[in-house]
Amino acid sequence: MQIGFVGLGKMGFNLALNLHRHGYEVVAYDVAIDNIKNISLEGVTPAYSLIEMCQQLDGRKVIWLMVPAGKPVDDCIELLVPHLDQHDIIIDGGNSNFNDSVRRYNYLKSKGIDYLDCGTSGGVEGALYGACTMIGGEDEVFNHCASVFRDISVENGYLHAGGPGSGHFVKMVHNGIEYGMMQAIAEGFEVMEQSKYDLDLQQVARVFNHGSVVRSWLMELVESAFSKDPKLDTIKGVMHSSGEGKWTLETALDMGIPTPVIALSLIMRYRSQQDDTFTGKVVAALRNEFGGHAVEKVVP
Amino acid sequence: MQIGFVGLGKMGFNLALNLHRHGYEVVAYDVAIDNIKNISLEGVTPAYSLIEMCQQLDGRKVIWLMVPAGKPVDDCIELLVPHLDQHDIIIDGGNSNFNDSVRRYNYLKSKGIDYLDCGTSGGVEGALYGACTMIGGEDEVFNHCASVFRDISVENGYLHAGGPGSGHFVKMVHNGIEYGMMQAIAEGFEVMEQSKYDLDLQQVARVFNHGSVVRSWLMELVESAFSKDPKLDTIKGVMHSSGEGKWTLETALDMGIPTPVIALSLIMRYRSQQDDTFTGKVVAALRNEFGGHAVEKVVP
Amino acid sequence: MQIGFVGLGKMGFNLALNLHRHGYEVVAYDVAIDNIKNISLEGVTPAYSLIEMCQQLDGRKVIWLMVPAGKPVDDCIELLVPHLDQHDIIIDGGNSNFNDSVRRYNYLKSKGIDYLDCGTSGGVEGALYGACTMIGGEDEVFNHCASVFRDISVENGYLHAGGPGSGHFVKMVHNGIEYGMMQAIAEGFEVMEQSKYDLDLQQVARVFNHGSVVRSWLMELVESAFSKDPKLDTIKGVMHSSGEGKWTLETALDMGIPTPVIALSLIMRYRSQQDDTFTGKVVAALRNEFGGHAVEKVVP
Amino acid sequence: MQIGFVGLGKMGFNLALNLHRHGYEVVAYDVAIDNIKNISLEGVTPAYSLIEMCQQLDGRKVIWLMVPAGKPVDDCIELLVPHLDQHDIIIDGGNSNFNDSVRRYNYLKSKGIDYLDCGTSGGVEGALYGACTMIGGEDEVFNHCASVFRDISVENGYLHAGGPGSGHFVKMVHNGIEYGMMQAIAEGFEVMEQSKYDLDLQQVARVFNHGSVVRSWLMELVESAFSKDPKLDTIKGVMHSSGEGKWTLETALDMGIPTPVIALSLIMRYRSQQDDTFTGKVVAALRNEFGGHAVEKVVP
Prior knowledge:
The structure is a homotetramer of 300-residue chains.
Chain A: E1 2-6, H1 10-21, E2 25-29, H2 33-40, E3 45-46, H3 50-55, E4 62-65, H4 71-80, E5 89-92, H5 98-110, E6 114-121, H6 123-129, E7 131-136, H7 139-152, E8 153-162, H8 166-193, H9 201-208, H10 217-228, H11 244-255, H12 260-272, H13 278-291
Parallel strand pairs in A: 1-2, 1-4, 2-3, 4-5, 5-6, 7-8
Antiparallel strand pairs in A: 6-7
Domain 6-phosphogluconate dehydrogenase C-terminal (chains A, B, C, D): 167-297
Protein name (chains A, B, C, D): Decarboxylating 6-phosphogluconate dehydrogenase
Pathway (chains A, B, C, D): Carbohydrate degradation; pentose phosphate pathway
């Protein structure tokens, strides 16, 4: 089976290779020519433009997009559409907002092109050795591609979640949960790191991973991180985010569902990106106003 | 009426003066001799030791303590007890934990000495020109001192809340509310300060204070703060705290009552005292482990 | 000066009357004919259609909209535009999202019609006796209407905040702050209500309003509420919301600004609208799974 | 090796059996005679009093306590002490507060008796087939008992965390993390359950457990729970708690460490135990006071 593959970043490169190793004839394109060359060294068929990629695909085309969420996906779809035939299939395997996926499904439907949204989890290692995939879209389209999802995923690691958008929806919530779990774990380790006990945090993570209630892949990654840098001395505690936690919260707000832990996980990420806060300045100024409590002065 | 007064810090000095100006014969003591001298310049009778203070008080002694919460109050009580007679009255006007006040009430009761706990709000200005006082203790003892509370408070600004500890309890909750209100106000001003609109925040605070739902003394203080430093450029956003918000949360936890806003007000104060967080390091390390997301490195 | 007035709900009726009492010639319309009749009894000129209203306005028309946020505002503008001349002025005095206001400003600008967005605070009483108004829009347009805002507001209670949208932006943040302040106050009163002390909560609110740091209009309203129902026994604790708290949070999220207290105020409102939660079911099920902790069963 | 075992509840029974199956000569006592009889049917030596238990232990006694945290542990220690010799060892394997464990260590030290605190995780299944144990105490004492911890734990599943109290401290934090992880997972599933997609939540949990970032034992338990009750229709969402989440938060507060997610996990548990809230009543009353927003009335 042939697969057109667009986007050879960290995740895409590994996923394309994963497909290739499972016997798919992958025709891969990226905006960065080096990425195309590198993957061709692995035996993957290179394509140096989207058109060239489409021309190399026979029959009902299946094209996997692994490009940044937002405009790049729309741009890519616009460029592909002229080269697609009725019922060719675009799979968006990136981190798109599920509302965008529903919109894109409807747009492509109006042009006779099929579409699946696929949330992909498991990190860069998973992309290569076995991912976790959550797919939204029509049954017939999913069934046509089912072997693809089965083969690139770990055993039992794929799910046809439901109609259009549901794959990215479930993946979005997955990431919301992930934010909460990570923050919970991290808070716990801060309490331990600051405690009067001189704990070996790598050993604590290790024991947590053997028989405890909180054993998890994330805890294994904590153990791994401490094995490289026992006090994380070299790492700044700046927590970036790429959108899905925010979307989970926004979706919950739209639905009127209380998700305080997911909300605070996100909010603390934003807080971590600030050195000083205007909120803090106002509170400090107020304490000074009514109580004469000294403020700390900014050193010019 | 005579009043022994112990503790001439910012609040105590003004409160002693307030009493003096209302015609009370205040005999004032402080551990810092300068404070004693300064208040004697205002016409207040100085005492250079607790014993000397007690000796100058006739009849049923009334002694107002305005010393830091915790050990200083206990120490002061220990030093006073030998010089007190049955039904002499100690009023703790400081920010003591209400559980301590209950304990002290019981301890003094066992010695035949009367006790009132008085939460005092209104800041340093209020201490001088009219405070807000919340008093806990027995009826007879409160009634004996009622005129004191009436005179130092603004009109309608004192309340015999209930039995022993209730004065400090109500004051504790007052401060918990205050934390939440301050944080809410401050968050709103951060949103405005960072917005695309070039808002004059002093003017915003001014208009909020004239007819809006959020008009309040705290908002007046916001206006005052911005009048001195329009962008609070000179102030660091470090938010200290003195215990009562924490006690409110701890009390709520003991009662199983959800107080998320008071909790987060306190938690964000703690966060403001950290430059970097171990929590952030752990989350950043995890994102790097599973997603290859670059961490920001600590610059040595 | 003439003013066309659209929308005679609780706020609009009072505001129209306020204008009338300040000597403006108000021509008022509402979708509900009873509202029109009622306000005509107060001496306000009735109009039984938007066209009729426009026809009665001479010179540069000034039309105040006080209709529900969202589609009603757009619909109203669509119906008005054909009857407006260049530089006639629409003032949206309702609770519109500031992003909508910016969009409407630009739309009307393209048609040569002027526009101001005005956030109005102070409740229904304020609407009649003196509101708090925050206005966004161009200087010339604001200046033309400045006396209107001055007259319907309490002294010092109006502000030309900035360009288009800024009035509704500042009002939105005002409401976000209001959510936080209300939740903080309410949490404190729950702690007091559940405490071992038999506190008279009306008296507590009263004393808080005389000299304390938390004195505020909201606390006066707390006192008023307790004066009517000392334990609030007749009121269910369901907290509805009308959008501005949510918009404040969404705006903060878009700006990457941490507003935990405003977030939690909103989230707890959503929580109050649920009888039982799926979140709770999942946690209870998990505790049963790993610890054998009994779950509470739903009674059919 | 002999082990005295006190407390045959869900966890204790399984743990005693686990020890027995690993070849230890377990002498078991419980306050409930049925529990003693039941475990004797499994070949464990019964003891019908603490004295009898002690009398059956030779040499340096090792006694494992698995009784409810708090007073029962202190009571049990008081009853045991007269029957212990110098350097006999008490292991507290229950969920004691680490501060209590430090206190008990010091108390027993003063009597010449050795003490280890052991946090035990893994649920009731883990207690039988392989637990996760975190031990605090002196090296010599730990080393004497090391084989016990090794044998009852899964491979790599035990850790000598540090000095006295550290075992229960690490276990406390483990539970704090667990609270946060559970709440994060549960919030995500509520968002999915309420969504427009008709998701099969068991299948979602299943796919999350195969290759995703959030794969974890807790997620496996979610899958298991949904396999029994696909919509959790029979379970009320009341989330009880047994102390360790609260202690984690209190400890963090004492240390000035921000743990918003752990805090909110706990707070939402408390909220789940309320049908209606006074907080909600106050906010609803306030909205009525200033905006005339109708309150929902309590149906008598």
